[in-house]
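Hey team,

Filing this mostly as a record. A colleague (T.K.) asked me to run one chain through the structure pipeline before their review meeting, and I want the input and output archived in the tracker in case anyone asks later how it was produced. No errors, nothing strange. Just documentation.

Input sequence:
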Amino acid sequence: MLARAGEALYGPHARTWQREMADALDINLRTVQRWAIGDGEPVAGVWADIADLVLNRCVVLAAMARRLQTLSETMETAK
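Output structure:
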C-alpha cells in the first residue's frame, strides 16, 4: 500500500517517491526506504498523514480538472 500511495502521489520511480514522501512527512528517507522493502511499516498516525497527502492531491487535481473543463468549454464557445 505504501508504494501504491507513493507512486500515485509522486510518480513511479522509487527513488523519487520515497524522497518526496519522506520530505512531505518530515521523516528520514531511510525510514521510508525500509518500509518500502517490508522492513517494518508506518504507525497509524503516519498512515493517516499519508491518507491526508492523497486526499489533498485529489482536491488539487479535481480543482484543476474543473478549470480545464471550463477552459475547454470557453474555447468551444468562442469558435
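Quick notes for T.K.: The mean pLDDT is 96. Residues 35 and 42 are 7 Å apart (CA to CA).
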